[in-house]
Design goal:
4-stranded mixed sheet, 4 strands, mainly beta, about 35% strand
Amino acid sequence: MTNYYVNNNAQNDGCHEIHREGCVCLQKIVSKTDLGLHNTCESALVKARKYFAYVNGCANC
């Protein structure tokens, strides 16, 4: 299982991106919410949608 986070600050298109622990993009994020441990990105996306309507997974991780 891997720990996932969602960026609290939306990208220019309004999307909040989720990242796995260890992703290089995660290091650049100032404000994030811990989504907990997940087996898949899809289950992390489901949890992130409880916080934000428009979320997507990171293309790098």
